[in-house]
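Sequence, please.
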């Protein structure tokens, strides 16, 4: 009794597989037409209409973003660059009115060194700029 059920299932599966192949090939042949015409039911389909409207919307939106990139973003970048350049020059003009680096007061919280750096003379950081940074170990208040 238990041996007949698996055999019955196997025979049913085999029959389904044998039956489905010719049906499948017939259906595929039926839809593979050599005629280039679109069937009347395909053009009026709601899915196809929505798909066409999405394509149209995507084309118009990409055109809008192209125009925005050319006529809005590029001028804004140029204006921002000019503004940054002017602010940079103002900043360095301000530094010209300050006393020399050697004459400025050094406070104990500036340039704290717990141990020497492993490069250079051990007193200067990796990002040390001699035009802006100054440190004299003997001069702290």
């Amino acid at each position: 009794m238990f041996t007949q059920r698996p055999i019955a299932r196997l025979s049913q599966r085999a029959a389904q597989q044998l039956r489905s192949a010719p049906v499948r090939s017939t259906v595929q042949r039926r839809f593979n037409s050599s005629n280039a015409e679109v069937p009347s039911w395909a053009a009026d389909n709601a899915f196809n209409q929505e798909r066409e409207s999405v394509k149209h919307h995507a084309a118009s939106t990409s055109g809008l973003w192209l125009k925005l990139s050319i006529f809005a973003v590029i001028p804004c970048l140029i204006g921002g660059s000019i503004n940054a350049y002017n602010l940079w020059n103002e900043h360095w003009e301000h530094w010209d009115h300050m006393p020399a680096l050697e004459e400025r007061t050094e406070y104990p919280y500036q340039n704290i060194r717990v141990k020497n750096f492993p490069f250079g003379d051990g007193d200067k950081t990796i990002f040390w700029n001699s035009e802006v940074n100054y440190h004299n170990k003997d001069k702290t208040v």
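The CA atoms of residues 32 and 108 lie 86 Å apart.
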